[in-house]
Amino acid sequence: xxxxxxxxxxxxxxxxxxxxxxxxxxxxxxxxxxxxxxxxxxxxxxxxxxxxxxxxxxxxxxxxxxxxxxxxxxxxxxxxxxxxxxxxxxxxxxxxxxxxxxxxxxxxxxxxxxxxxxxxxxxxxxxxxxxxxxxxxxxxxxxxxxxxxxxxxx
Length: 154
Hints:
It contains 1 helix and 10 strands, in the order αββββββββββ. The chain has one helix spanning about 5-10; strands spanning about 30, 45, 50-55, 70-75, 80-85, 95-100, 105-110, 115-120, 125-135, 145-154. It has a 5-stranded mixed β-sheet with strand order 1-3-10-5-8, with no helix packed on it. The chain is globular.
């Protein structure tokens, strides 16, 4: 589970997300998530330009369904990052991305059913990207295989 401040942030309304016009990088590296990565404290490192493959909806610890994956991002330069997620979309649930600052405050969230998100990152700061199932993961429900990729946008 995410920390309390992140959990409260998930309950907030979605922000508007502009569509990226021009990008400069393609994925340099593709890798699989490493469990556990279900909180800010357990977040996997993620670098802009890379792609990560993950899965939600499976039973991790017996009786506990994995509903979140969290990635930690270090901004090595000030830039706009464009995140894209590829994955299953069902009539009753879909994947959602949210960017948080290093204190756990929500900065930006993808719109309902929209599989991209732009976020301004400041040089030297750390951020978190959370992937979750919306409107919520039900035990024994759908399994979501996904791929998150990103690129710097001019």
